[in-house]
Amino acid sequence: MSELCRRGRELLQELKSYDRFTLSPFNEEIIRLIFQEIEEHDGLTKEIVAKFRQQQENIDDPVYDGVVATTLCAHYESIKRNKRCLLIYMAERMERLKAFRWELRRLPEDQASRCCPQELQFYSEYDKVLTSYMSKEEGVGMDLTLDCVPPKDSLVTVRGLRDIGERIFSFGAVQISRGGLFHLPLDEAEPLIRAGDVAQVQWSSGFL
């Protein structure tokens, strides 16, 4: 048996090495080995318990065996730790998938390729539920993914990153060109920012 819970630690360290908008490739091999280790601990635990019970049957006054108790605790705690590592791994990946929907409004193709089939199904169903909840027909009739961070100003200055042509805003039409500066309502600029068409200009002391 390998070093206790080493693979569970490696699995979490691998995921932690990526930023919150990047998934590590779903590591099916390490997960398989962790389940195998859990089964090994479980099998050894059952063997120890069976052997200990057999020994105690021939004794009128059962004796506490510290070595057996310590060994059982080590196996049991290893099983629990491996399970916790797996649960943390899956929970964190699910949180990142939800963050894609809330902040990017989509699951990028390069990230989808890092998911297992069950994760893709989770994202698809989560997307449907959230879209339905925000719709006028079935929900609140409001895009809740806007303004995830409270704005300091209702208008923002953005710089064009691509020539995307004319776009219609609440105040009229604007020709978005690469390198141009535009003053737009924040809620209407956010989709363009997230799509990479424009970038918000961060002002410092009133200057670029």
Which descriptors apply to this entry?
mainly alpha; three-stranded antiparallel beta sheet; GINS_Psf1; nucleus; 5 strands; Methane Monooxygenase Hydroxylase, Chain G, domain 1; single chain; 2 domains; 208 residues
Characterization of the model:
Belongs to the GINS1/PSF1 family. It is found in: Nucleus. It comes from Polytomella parva. Its main location: nucleus. The chain is mainly alpha-helical. It has two domains: 6-134, Methane Monooxygenase Hydroxylase, Chain G, domain 1 (Up-down Bundle); 155-200. The chain contains six helices and five strands. The strands form two sheets. A three-stranded antiparallel β-sheet has the order 4-1-5, with helices on one face. A hairpin with a 2-residue loop joins strand 2 (165-169) and strand 3. It is elongated and about 90 Å long. The termini are far apart. The model has no long low-confidence stretch (mean pLDDT 87).
SSE succession: HHHHHEEEEHE
The first-to-last residue Cα distance is: 59 Å
Give the count of helical stretches. Answer: 6
Provide the domain count.
2
Share of helical residues: 40-55%
**Sheet bearing the most strands, described?**
3 strands, antiparallel
Number of strands: 5
Shape: elongated
Structural class: mainly alpha
Low-confidence stretches: none
Gyration radius over CA = 27 Å
Give the strand order of the largest sheet, numbering strands 1, 2, ... along the chain: 4-1-5
Oligomer: single chain
**Percent of residues in beta strands:** 5-15%
CATH class of the largest domain, named Mainly Alpha
Q: Mean pLDDT, nearest integer?
A: 87
CATH architecture of the largest domain: Up-down Bundle
CATH fold naming of the largest domain:
Methane Monooxygenase Hydroxylase, Chain G, domain 1
